[in-house]
Design a protein that fits this description.
globular; Rossmann fold; 2 domains; 6-stranded mixed sheet; alpha/beta; 12 strands; 4-stranded antiparallel sheet
């Protein structure tokens, strides 16, 4: 953020971004700026291009048309290591590595900075140590990752992404498979670290209520295009629920925080279900 609290200059810029798999176009000309210091939530149905956008913006795939600029440089022209020194991507899932300790996994985030020879040297450098401290995982450093709970593993994976020591963080469905407590724990950790480290964060979320509560800005994708873009209080409407997420529903306000709260009722096109009029007194 700038001194007056407004977002800074664009650090991620997508221009006419297009991409497809096996003849099916997933992104169909996306133009999107993410400014320094923003926390942006990408929402939309499965297959609308959210995860694909993150992969393209992180330089893990090349677009069929258009480009993504990271701080003004075309990410497709950067090496993988050079891109990883600018943006860290926490994938939706990762294969388990039996026997790998927390410390060893977090150190994998240092590969882009240290390279293969530097990784052979062993030992934790300052960014890895700080990443574990910031995510509350230091006490688990010598425990096997596969012995941790789902919520604990996700915090360790977040530490690995933070260990890349970038100013831009992409999170692909960071709350997948977590119970409600651990979903809130992860999202509140992301919000805290964003402020403490002055990060720019883009995260894919399925839960619109989480997006409305934690993000500064919501970008909704539909059929590979941007269908809505703006602050939660403006974007989260019954029309968005119907047109982007395919459900009829209502939108209210949280009594304490004031953010929008969604009450989905039934899928678009299905008969309206009978309401349960029973109340617990």
């Amino acid at each position: 953020m700038t001194a007056d609290g407004a977002p800074g200059a664009p650090v991620v810029r997508a221009e006419g971004l297009r991409f497809g798999y096996s003849g099916r176009e997933v992104l169909r000309g996306v133009d999107l700026d993410v400014r320094a210091g923003e926390l942006v939530a990408l929402i939309g149905l499965n297959g609308c291009g959210k995860s694909t956008f993150l992969r393209l913006a992180a330089g893990l795939a090349a677009p069929s048309a258009g480009r993504v600029l990271l701080a003004g440089d075309d990410v497709s022209r950067l090496s993988r290591r050079a891109a990883a020194r600018r943006v860290a991507l926490l994938h939706q899932s990762a294969p388990a590595v039996p026997g790998l300790t927390v410390r060893q996994l977090v150190r994998q985030g240092r590969y882009a900075a240290r390279g293969p020879l530097g990784m052979l040297g062993g030992g934790d450098d300052e960014p890895a140590v700080r990443a574990m401290a910031d995510t509350g995982t230091t006490a688990w450093a010598d425990r096997p990752v596969d012995a941790l709970s789902g919520g604990e593993r996700q915090r360790v994976r977040l530490a690995m992404a933070l260990a890349q020591d970038t100013r831009v963080l992409f999170l692909d469905e960071p709350t997948t498979y977590l119970d409600l407590r651990h979903q809130l724990e992860v999202l509140q950790t992301v919000v805290r670290l964003r402020a403490e480290r002055d990060l720019t964060v883009v995260m894919v979320l399925h839960d619109l209520n989480h997006a409305a509560r934690f993000a500064d800005r919501i970008v909704a994708l539909r059929d590979g295009r941007i269908a809505a873009d703006g602050p939660p209080h403006r974007v989260v409407t019954p029309a968005l629920l119907a047109e982007v997420l395919g459900v009829r529903g209502r939108v209210g306000r949280d009594e304490v925080g004031g953010w929008p709260v969604c009450y989905p009722d039934h899928p678009v096109g299905s008969p309206e279900p009978l309401r349960n009029e029973n109340h617990i007194h």
